[in-house]
């Protein structure tokens, strides 16, 4: 697929703004649809609202790509993504939100930050987020194994994700790839949400 870069990366245009708005709104709609299907209504409604804030929206419009996150383009241009730093600190469905200093006070290079286990409901929202992102960026080429493939490709770099969080996410992505949305969503709804397991895991 040919990469769709804006004519002048870093410069906001009406076309970029409209296309970015459509992309993030479609993404939000897909996540909301998935969350509603399993009974996580509040999370479906409030998912990714910070993307419409000036701190995130203007950057997204300026670095609009069409087939990948504009955050990646911003990183390539300036060395980091200010939109992502703003986003991950306000959205609990990202495992990067769940970092903290080691409670034992070991603040050396190797143990300054530790991963905190995510509440199950946010893992489910992260699962829906990854499905939606795959659908948006893969378009007609989307398959139920895309989100799992993307997760596995980056797993070796995800050193600050709690092992139990990674295990639950992997379990759901594997189920999606093997059994499809209908059965996976039913499993989440009946075994995680209705039994309130997502609040305990």
Structure in words:
- The protein is mostly helical.
- The chain has one domain.
- Helix content is 57%, strand content 3%.
- Strands 1-2 form a two-stranded antiparallel ribbon.
- Mean pLDDT is 89; it is low at 1-8.
Question: In a few lines, what is going on in this structure?
Answer:
The protein has 201 residues and is mostly helical. Helix content is 57%, strand content 3%.
Please give the alpha-carbon distance between the first and last residues.
39 Å
What is the mean predicted local confidence, pLDDT? 89
Order of helices and strands: HHHHHEEHHH
Structural class: mainly alpha
Instruction: Tell me the helix content.
Output: 55-70%
From the spread of the alpha carbons, the general shape counts as globular
List keywords for this structure.
201 residues; mainly alpha; disordered N terminus; globular; 2 strands
List the helices and strands and how they pair.
Elements: H1 14-38, H2 41-46, H3 54-62, H4 70-78, H5 82-88, E1 99-101, E2 113-115, H6 120-138, H7 146-154, H8 163-193
Antiparallel strand pairs: 1-2
Helix pairs in contact: 1-3, 1-6, 3-5, 6-8, 7-8
